[in-house]
Amino acid sequence: MGGLNITPIVRNLLIMNVAVFLAAALLNRVELFSEWFGLRAFISPFFSPYQIFTYMFMHGGWQHLIFNMMGLIFLGPLLETVWGQQRFLFFFIFTGIGAGLVDAAANSYELSAVLADGRIFLQDPTPDNYVQFLGKHYPDGIFNQEQFIASFEKDPHNQTYIRETTNFVRKFDNMIANRVSVGASGAIFGLMTALGLLFPNTELMLLFLPIPIKAKYFVLLSAAFAVFMIMRRDSSDNVAHFAHLGGMLFAWIIISFWNKQRTKFW
């Protein structure tokens, strides 16, 4: 693999990502930068088209930045050497934008469901409708508000309970509409997929695995894990698994297209 022999485009991408994060951190505006340039659902009132590009250069913290940049350092140089600078840069941006498109589409689907169910409750704010809303979109809320829900069920016409639940649903709707995705991980998963497609039998040594694993198996396991986490629907999980799958999907699309063109591939 490319190791620490950092190639020009990888170096420039590193500089850009670190510089943006440092600027935000020094100005104490990390969250504000994410709000400005992070990616939201297409149907969110806070969505702007430029976010599909800018989100991949935003990071929510040092750990997030370091993890993604380590992936870029260890995966990028080999692929840049194989493809050349222009094709590598195109691939990185293409998979990053593709990951953003998939993530924004998935979030739009979720947001539309949240808003629709929220309207049902707001039109008829009963305990049953409130529990159904929580069960679909915030399962942890049923446990966290168990005592409150019991009181609401005993007194369903209590205006205080109705006001509290309607305020909660409105705030939840706004939170989902304002949810942002940030980070280069979609593009990094695209690089990982490229490695698995081009060099499937390359053995990787990972920090969290004591044994080597072939690149093709690591790609499959990563995709399976992303699908599992999506299906698990853990409300405390703030990882953009759809973006990871999107980066992998768009990597497969462009590499398949390049292969069929039978032009210079590497």
Automatic annotation (TrEMBL):
Localization: Membrane
SUPFAM superfamilies registered for this protein in UniProt: Rhomboid-like
Domain of life: Bacteria
Pfam families from the UniProt entry: Rhomboid
UniProt domain Peptidase S54 rhomboid: residue ranges: 49-109, 177-255
Membrane topology designation: Multi-pass membrane protein
Molecular-function GO term, any one: serine-type endopeptidase activity
The organism's taxonomic lineage, starting at the top: Bacteria, Pseudomonadati, Bacteroidota, Cytophagia, Cytophagales
Protein name: Rhomboid family protein
Organism: Flexibacter flexilis DSM 6793
GO cellular component, as recorded: membrane
